[in-house]
Amino acid sequence: KKGGFRFYMEKEIYEQFEVLKENTLGRNTKEGIKFEEVDKKFFEGINNIIISACGTSYHAGLVGKYLIERDAKIRVNVEVASELRYREPLLSQDTLFIVISQSGETADTLETLKMAKKAGLKTLALCNVDNSSIVREADKTILLRAGIEKGVASTKAFATQVMTLWMLSNYLANKNEYYAINEAIEVTKVDTSLHEKIKRLSKRYTKGHGFFYIGRDIFFPLALEGALKLKEISYIHAEGYPAGEMKHGPIALADPDLYVVALLSKNILFDKTKSNIEELVARDATVLTISSEYIEMTDDFIRINETNHPMVEFFEMMVITQLLAMEVAIRMGNDVDMPRNLAKSVTVE
Ligand code: M6R
């Protein structure tokens, strides 16, 4: 059933290329984005967006904020559902309420959706499971089409969540990035020699006192997601951090046993991020840089393809961080499909 792969997680990482093709089929067209599920009328009168989600789905939402605000110029707030639910948020009627969920059954996310509906907001679900509680509750749903995800650590669902938000952002902005979207799908095809390299590299990254994943802009939520992936299956402490925030405290932790995964985009704030990496190197942290631009100073380097689009870099880096987390965890002898203390869908609060 695992199709020759050691774990479902590995299979699902490898599947992302096919799954993203499915996710964008009939939606990403040369004439622009088309969604059968919604029409432009649904978005009329919308001045704000709130995105509510948990875990990995929340990280996807954060990427959506950067994209939608930059391109569509609509204000977006991204909320952790378990927090949103118990505070008294100001919900205005010109707000579109988006929930993101792989399972469609996450209790906190579902409750926020009910809350938004009660306040009279339009609601939209980005969800992988048709007929789930969230899909039944929402006014409209865009299905993620990721297929069944078995690994507790979400991989392909995350890929489709980010892709759907990217398409939504194009849709709202009347922007056409047909070719960039296809390029981003292309780079998720796993290169087996790269996978071998990551397997070898993972040896170095099992003993330290913790990991920081750093990035700026859309690479900050990817840093959060990379760190979550690592901690949930390897049980090693990991944090995602905005690269520019390291000097406001965490850099005090830097020593050779602090591991840093630096997501260095060529297209967004390259020099600024590079100087944040230099600061960590100067304090002797062990740094792995992922970039298309070779930088000599760090201990390890993984090269991605040269591209002019940050989202293409994003998707290639995403696969690398998933493989890295998986290889570190496998090396430590863990069952990456069934990490301790976790359930695939969290239907209790
Ligand atoms: O099914 P959902 O997307 O609503 O689940 C949300 C989180 O529980 C989920 O993303 C969790 O963080 C994953 N285990 C992360 O890999």
From TrEMBL:
Enzyme category, top tier: transferase
**Domain SIS as annotated: residue spans:** 38-178, 201-339
Task: Give the record's keywords alphabetically.
Answer: Aminotransferase, Glutamine amidotransferase, Repeat, Transferase
Q: What is its EC number?
A: 2.6.1.16
Q: Its catalytic activity?
A: D-fructose 6-phosphate + L-glutamine = D-glucosamine 6-phosphate + L-glutamate
Q: Which GO terms describe its molecular function?
A: glutamine-fructose-6-phosphate transaminase (isomerizing) activity
Q: What is the protein's name according to its record?
A: Glutamine--fructose-6-phosphate aminotransferase [isomerizing]
Q: Which organism is it from?
A: Caminibacter mediatlanticus TB-2
